[in-house]
Specification:
The longest helix has 47 residues. It contains 5 helices and 4 strands, in the order αββαββααα. Helix 4 runs antiparallel to helix 5. The radius of gyration is 39 Å and the shape is elongated. It is an alpha+beta fold.
Length: 212
Protein backbone atom coordinates (compact mmCIF):
# COMPACT_ATOMS: atom_id res chain seq x y z
CA UNK A 1 0.00 0.00 0.00
CA UNK A 2 2.79 2.38 0.93
CA UNK A 3 4.63 1.63 -2.32
CA UNK A 4 1.50 2.56 -4.28
CA UNK A 5 1.29 5.92 -2.47
CA UNK A 6 4.93 6.65 -3.20
CA UNK A 7 4.44 5.65 -6.82
CA UNK A 8 1.42 7.90 -7.09
CA UNK A 9 3.33 10.88 -5.61
CA UNK A 10 6.23 10.32 -7.98
CA UNK A 11 3.84 10.15 -10.92
CA UNK A 12 2.15 13.38 -9.86
CA UNK A 13 5.49 15.18 -9.56
CA UNK A 14 6.49 13.92 -12.97
CA UNK A 15 3.24 15.15 -14.50
CA UNK A 16 3.63 18.60 -12.87
CA UNK A 17 7.22 18.88 -14.08
CA UNK A 18 6.17 17.85 -17.58
CA UNK A 19 3.35 20.39 -17.57
CA UNK A 20 5.70 23.16 -16.40
CA UNK A 21 8.22 22.27 -19.08
CA UNK A 22 5.48 22.19 -21.69
CA UNK A 23 4.26 25.63 -20.56
CA UNK A 24 7.80 27.00 -20.75
CA UNK A 25 8.25 25.57 -24.23
CA UNK A 26 4.94 27.10 -25.37
CA UNK A 27 6.05 30.60 -24.28
CA UNK A 28 7.44 32.91 -26.94
CA UNK A 29 9.69 35.87 -26.35
CA UNK A 30 9.29 39.05 -28.41
CA UNK A 31 11.75 41.93 -28.50
CA UNK A 32 13.12 44.64 -30.77
CA UNK A 33 16.72 45.04 -31.78
CA UNK A 34 18.66 48.31 -32.06
CA UNK A 35 17.16 48.93 -35.51
CA UNK A 36 13.61 48.42 -34.24
CA UNK A 37 13.20 45.05 -35.91
CA UNK A 38 10.82 42.72 -34.04
CA UNK A 39 12.14 39.24 -33.19
CA UNK A 40 10.45 36.12 -31.81
CA UNK A 41 12.07 33.07 -30.21
CA UNK A 42 11.45 30.30 -27.73
CA UNK A 43 14.76 30.99 -26.02
CA UNK A 44 15.65 34.30 -24.43
CA UNK A 45 18.84 35.75 -25.97
CA UNK A 46 21.07 38.24 -24.09
CA UNK A 47 20.17 41.10 -26.43
CA UNK A 48 16.50 40.70 -25.48
CA UNK A 49 17.38 41.03 -21.81
CA UNK A 50 19.38 44.17 -22.53
CA UNK A 51 16.58 45.81 -24.53
CA UNK A 52 13.53 44.47 -22.69
CA UNK A 53 11.08 41.90 -23.95
CA UNK A 54 7.54 40.50 -23.81
CA UNK A 55 6.42 36.97 -23.02
CA UNK A 56 3.63 35.60 -25.22
CA UNK A 57 1.51 32.55 -24.54
CA UNK A 58 0.53 29.95 -27.09
CA UNK A 59 -2.33 32.19 -28.26
CA UNK A 60 0.02 35.11 -28.92
CA UNK A 61 -1.25 37.16 -25.98
CA UNK A 62 1.22 39.16 -23.88
CA UNK A 63 1.38 37.62 -20.41
CA UNK A 64 4.40 39.51 -19.13
CA UNK A 65 6.40 42.63 -20.00
CA UNK A 66 9.99 42.97 -18.81
CA UNK A 67 11.54 46.42 -19.27
CA UNK A 68 15.23 46.86 -20.05
CA UNK A 69 17.52 47.35 -17.04
CA UNK A 70 17.96 50.93 -15.91
CA UNK A 71 21.04 52.88 -16.87
CA UNK A 72 23.12 54.37 -14.00
CA UNK A 73 21.59 57.78 -14.71
CA UNK A 74 18.06 56.37 -14.73
CA UNK A 75 18.73 54.44 -11.54
CA UNK A 76 20.03 57.59 -9.83
CA UNK A 77 16.99 59.53 -11.01
CA UNK A 78 14.66 56.80 -9.76
CA UNK A 79 16.36 56.75 -6.36
CA UNK A 80 16.18 60.54 -6.12
CA UNK A 81 12.47 60.46 -6.99
CA UNK A 82 11.85 57.75 -4.42
CA UNK A 83 13.58 59.83 -1.74
CA UNK A 84 11.56 62.89 -2.77
CA UNK A 85 8.30 60.99 -2.49
CA UNK A 86 9.36 59.50 0.83
CA UNK A 87 10.18 62.96 2.18
CA UNK A 88 6.86 64.29 0.88
CA UNK A 89 4.96 61.47 2.56
CA UNK A 90 6.84 62.06 5.82
CA UNK A 91 5.98 65.76 5.66
CA UNK A 92 2.31 64.98 5.15
CA UNK A 93 2.33 62.52 8.04
CA UNK A 94 3.98 65.10 10.30
CA UNK A 95 1.46 67.74 9.26
CA UNK A 96 -1.37 65.33 10.01
CA UNK A 97 0.13 64.62 13.42
CA UNK A 98 0.37 68.34 14.21
CA UNK A 99 -3.16 68.93 12.96
CA UNK A 100 -4.48 66.20 15.24
CA UNK A 101 -2.56 67.69 18.15
CA UNK A 102 -4.02 71.14 17.51
CA UNK A 103 -7.55 69.80 17.20
CA UNK A 104 -7.25 67.71 20.38
CA UNK A 105 -5.57 70.42 22.47
CA UNK A 106 -7.28 73.68 21.51
CA UNK A 107 -10.85 74.83 20.98
CA UNK A 108 -10.07 78.33 19.77
CA UNK A 109 -7.32 80.69 18.68
CA UNK A 110 -7.63 82.36 22.08
CA UNK A 111 -6.61 79.10 23.76
CA UNK A 112 -3.44 78.96 21.65
CA UNK A 113 -2.61 82.61 22.32
CA UNK A 114 -3.05 82.11 26.07
CA UNK A 115 -0.66 79.15 26.12
CA UNK A 116 1.79 81.12 23.95
CA UNK A 117 1.74 84.05 26.36
CA UNK A 118 2.32 81.73 29.34
CA UNK A 119 5.31 80.07 27.67
CA UNK A 120 6.83 83.37 26.53
CA UNK A 121 6.31 84.95 29.97
CA UNK A 122 8.14 82.08 31.63
CA UNK A 123 11.05 82.41 29.21
CA UNK A 124 11.21 86.17 29.68
CA UNK A 125 11.30 85.73 33.46
CA UNK A 126 14.28 83.41 33.09
CA UNK A 127 15.91 85.89 30.72
CA UNK A 128 15.56 88.71 33.24
CA UNK A 129 17.30 86.66 35.90
CA UNK A 130 20.10 85.68 33.53
CA UNK A 131 20.58 89.28 32.34
CA UNK A 132 20.77 90.53 35.93
CA UNK A 133 23.28 87.81 36.79
CA UNK A 134 25.29 88.68 33.69
CA UNK A 135 25.36 92.36 34.63
CA UNK A 136 26.58 91.54 38.15
CA UNK A 137 29.32 89.34 36.74
CA UNK A 138 30.39 92.01 34.25
CA UNK A 139 30.56 94.60 37.04
CA UNK A 140 32.51 92.24 39.27
CA UNK A 141 34.90 91.36 36.44
CA UNK A 142 35.46 95.00 35.64
CA UNK A 143 36.44 95.63 39.29
CA UNK A 144 38.84 92.68 39.32
CA UNK A 145 40.43 93.75 36.05
CA UNK A 146 40.85 97.30 37.40
CA UNK A 147 42.74 95.93 40.40
CA UNK A 148 44.88 93.85 38.09
CA UNK A 149 45.61 96.85 35.87
CA UNK A 150 46.73 98.94 38.85
CA UNK A 151 49.12 96.25 39.98
CA UNK A 152 50.53 95.89 36.48
CA UNK A 153 50.89 99.68 36.18
CA UNK A 154 52.73 99.77 39.49
CA UNK A 155 54.94 96.95 38.24
CA UNK A 156 53.82 94.73 41.05
CA UNK A 157 53.07 91.04 40.86
CA UNK A 158 49.43 90.07 40.37
CA UNK A 159 48.47 87.59 43.12
CA UNK A 160 47.62 84.10 41.92
CA UNK A 161 44.27 84.14 43.70
CA UNK A 162 43.32 87.34 41.83
CA UNK A 163 44.20 85.76 38.50
CA UNK A 164 42.20 82.65 39.42
CA UNK A 165 39.21 84.73 40.46
CA UNK A 166 39.32 86.68 37.18
CA UNK A 167 39.48 83.41 35.22
CA UNK A 168 36.57 81.98 37.23
CA UNK A 169 34.39 85.05 36.70
CA UNK A 170 35.18 85.04 32.99
CA UNK A 171 34.13 81.39 32.73
CA UNK A 172 30.93 82.05 34.68
CA UNK A 173 30.22 85.06 32.51
CA UNK A 174 30.66 83.00 29.35
CA UNK A 175 28.16 80.46 30.70
CA UNK A 176 25.69 83.22 31.49
CA UNK A 177 26.01 84.65 27.98
CA UNK A 178 25.47 81.21 26.42
CA UNK A 179 22.42 80.63 28.62
CA UNK A 180 21.04 84.00 27.63
CA UNK A 181 21.57 83.25 23.94
CA UNK A 182 19.88 79.86 24.32
CA UNK A 183 16.87 81.39 26.05
CA UNK A 184 16.57 84.15 23.44
CA UNK A 185 16.67 81.55 20.67
CA UNK A 186 14.07 79.46 22.47
CA UNK A 187 11.81 82.48 22.87
CA UNK A 188 12.09 83.31 19.16
CA UNK A 189 11.40 79.68 18.21
CA UNK A 190 8.42 79.55 20.56
CA UNK A 191 6.90 82.67 19.02
CA UNK A 192 7.47 81.27 15.53
CA UNK A 193 5.91 77.90 16.34
CA UNK A 194 2.85 79.46 17.92
CA UNK A 195 2.49 81.84 14.98
CA UNK A 196 2.48 78.83 12.64
CA UNK A 197 0.05 76.96 14.88
CA UNK A 198 -2.36 79.88 14.96
CA UNK A 199 -2.25 80.25 11.18
CA UNK A 200 -2.82 76.50 10.72
CA UNK A 201 -5.65 76.45 13.28
CA UNK A 202 -7.39 79.25 11.42
CA UNK A 203 -7.02 77.27 8.22
CA UNK A 204 -8.53 74.20 9.87
CA UNK A 205 -11.38 76.39 11.08
CA UNK A 206 -11.99 77.62 7.54
CA UNK A 207 -12.07 73.99 6.36
CA UNK A 208 -14.71 73.19 8.98
CA UNK A 209 -12.50 70.72 10.85
CA UNK A 210 -12.71 72.53 14.21
CA UNK A 211 -15.66 71.55 16.37
CA UNK A 212 -17.65 74.56 17.47
Amino acid sequence: MRSRVLLGSATLCLLLATAAASAAESSTFRWRDAQGQVHYSNLLPPQAVDRGYEVLNSSGDVVKRVPPPLTPAQRAAAEAEAKRLEKLAAGRAEQQRRDNMLLRTFNSVHDIERLRDDRVSALEAQLRLVREHQQRLEKHLAGLQAREAKLVAAKRDVPADLRQEIAGVRSELADARNTRKTLETERADTLRRFKDDIARFKQLQAEGRVQQ
